[in-house]
Amino acid sequence: MLRKPNLICVDVDYRESIAVAAGVLFHAWGDEVPAKEATVTIREVQPYQPGQFFRRELPCLVRVLDALGTRPDTVIIDGYVWLGSTDRPGLGAFLFETLSREAAVIGVAKRRFRDWSSSQQTAGNLPPHEDFPSVLARSLTPAATCGECARCFGSTNAVEVFRGRSRSPLYVTAAGMDSSEAAGHIRSMHGKYRIPTLLKRVDRLSRSSTVYHCLF
Q1: Coil, strand or helix: which one is 13?
Q2: d(Cα 178, Cα 174) in Å, to the nearest integer?
């Protein structure tokens, strides 16, 4: 019997002095109801550093993945894996490395990323990571990989996904699978509106919860 894939949506909500990370486990892209979910309250949150948002959010994502107690095959985050089309790592790329490249990471963003190399408008996005640790930055650049970058990291260009009757796309990037494959998965997720049902669920969990709990 084939093992069911472990697919996990994660999200983080920030309060005045804490963060609440939520995770939803499911096994098929068309699932409407989660198999398991968890939230974790993080009371020691890293301060926001412009251009280094991953330093704040990555520890929260790791905590809730640990709380679910299930080894993920694919993790879906709210945001980008790659920033723009220049192979610059986003939050998802750092999570991919943190998971030792053993799980694919899909980024689902609601807004188009504005490349700071050509625009100085923030649009809620991050400026270039000028002070990323050089070793880590090199390890995340496809030029430093095995040479099979498309298979290892996927395309760095976001794929637009239109769902339901919405005229506004979701922007999908990925590591560990091709972005076009990742876009197909997001397109097939349950829900007739722009945002898939389980992505809405994990967002609500992070926003409504204040204490750690785990639902089996």
Answers
A1: strand
A2: 7
Q: Whose CA is closest to 46, among 12, 78, 77?
A: 12
Token look-up 């704040």 returns: 56
Using alpha carbons only, give the angle 212, 213, 216 rounded to the nearest 5 degrees.
155
Decide if 23 contacts 192 (C-beta within 8 A): no
Backbone angles phi, psi at 53, to 5 degrees: -60, -30
pLDDT tens-place string over residues 9-37: 999 999 888 999 999 999 999 999 999 99
Is pTM, for the whole model, over 0.90? no
Domains present along the chain, CATH in parentheses: 7-119+130-215 (3.30.2170.10)
Cα torsion 129, 135, 138, 139 to 10°: value is: -120
Looking at the chain, the number of H-run helices and the number of E-run strands are: 6, 10
